Amino acid sequence: MRKSKFTESQIVAMINEAESGVSVPDLCRQHGIGQSTFYKWRSKYGGMEASGVKRLKELEEENRKLKDMFATLSLKHTMLEEIVAKKL
User: Above 80 in pLDDT, residue 88?
Assistant: First the structure.
């Protein structure tokens, strides 16, 4: 996945700027982003502060690691079940 050229704190600052009264098309033109990108960011980061965004990223990373661990263990379990079934 492509990394954004904006940090989470910059994204939160843009959202706060839009909430303070700057129109979304002007804001997007000023920062060089599409309106759809802004609305996706607003749905994901809306109402958060920079510390909340950092915590969200940490939780997403932890969730990714746990999913990877589960997939590995599930595959091992399936392989062991097949070995036991072949021996019977």
Answer: no
Rounded Cα distance, 15 and 19, in Å? 6
Residue 52, CA atoms < 13 Å, CB-side half-sphere: 8
Specify the amino acid at residue 46. G
Distance of CA 5 to the CA centre of its chain: 14
Across 1-88, where does the E strand assignment appear? none
Amino acid at 21: G
Q: What is the pLDDT of residues 50-65, one digit of tens each?
A: 788 888 889 999 999 9
pTM exceeds 0.85, yes or no: no
Of 1, 2, 3, 8, residue with least CA distance to 54? 8
Structure tokens at 41: 């960011």
Element (H, E) at 27: helix 24-31
